[in-house]
Amino acid sequence: MKSATAFRTISEVATDLRVPQHVLRFWETKFPQIRPLKRGGGRRYYRPEDVELLRRIQALLYEERYTIKGVQRLLKEGRTANPTPPLPEDSEDETGPDGAGEGVPAPEPLDPNDAPEDEPPGLPSDLRHDLLMVLDELKALRGVLARLSGRDEKNI
Length: 156
Known about the structure:
By secondary structure, this protein is mostly helical. It has helices at 10-17, 21-30, 48-63, 68-77, 125-149, and strands spanning 8-9, 37-38, 44-46. A hairpin with a 5-residue loop joins strand 2 and strand 3 (44-46). The longest helix is centred in the last third of the chain and has 25 residues, at 125-149.
């Protein structure tokens, strides 16, 4: 077992975090804060602080369900210790400040208990709620497309 201050190879970090090596290389392109040393032949050696940052990024992405943009924003603001849960409007950079497209109101939150009676059994309520939120967003986008194209919403 290596000491806590030892540098780690990409293989060791990937095994430790239980992610493929290509994911670590991808994260390096998205998060400039990750700066492994590169030696002969392009071999990567991660510092202990790089490994800790990768652990935090992994937790934010996989456990706390942030988007890459959301994690980038948290890192830029220096808020990665105990972030608040992500909001569905986490991508406000590409849309209006309310998370919806310009001039489009954000969809009303749905009550996951308002599911139809003929719904298949076994669908977890949190998954049903997430799917209903996505459906509402898609309907709002359909309306935007209809207005932009001058067509009837039903024909899009």
